[in-house]
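Quick log. Single chain, no ligands specified.
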Amino acid sequence: MSAKTPTAPTWLRESAIFAGRRLLRWRRSPMIPIQALLLPTLLLITYRLLVGDSMRRITGADSLYRLVPMCALAGAMFGALSLGLAIPNERYTGILSRFWTLPVHRASALTGTLLAEAIRCVCGGLIITAVGMVMGFRFSGSPLTVIPFVLVPTVVALTFACIVIAVGARAQNNVVLTWLGTGSVGLVFGSSGIAPTEMFPSWVAPVIRYQPMSAAIDTMRALASGEPIAGPLLLTSGWVIAIGLIAVPSAIRGYRLAAQSH
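-> predicted structure:
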């Protein structure tokens, strides 16, 4: 009797099981979701209390409309960086190889991991947004705007997670992952979330304006404040597609090589 090819619903169910495994591990060792949520929340509160009024006087706008998107994006990416440590550990212990030999769809373990990341990003984004609303952050249009508002950092973080998986699956030590984390954090905090790009020196302002994190932050800010969204959304989509075309195949190949290494 020939083996049956898994259907799409079967693959989705298997992915949900692997996602549940990842979420269960986070519940038993909650340091990763706490770190991904606690640090950005503390940053939001601290920055608001220290320089919020000064930024309002300088720019004439409430800094929350930059800070909340930046902190939501930072939280999403902080959590994605944890995969950089989890994937090599699972490779060395042979867990990935065991998953590879199970009678399940070969992609289900990877897609389950990304599904768990998406759930974490959405929950974290909602919590940080709620904290911002307590501090005065508001959506000028429909309350349903919170859905695309939270989806933007989720999509960005999933694209970044593919980069992390691709690097983590091949890395022999944590040096490369450390540099990756340092660069990604630098992009988040060297963005339009800190201050309007007009306030940066003229030689660096174009770089700040068009880098991927600024594009995502400006998209979220436009969603919340009711400003025109076409420009930043198009730039964000361009960055996600361009990076995804490289990161997703690299993540798939890296995950496969890591699973077959034992």
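The mean pLDDT is 83.
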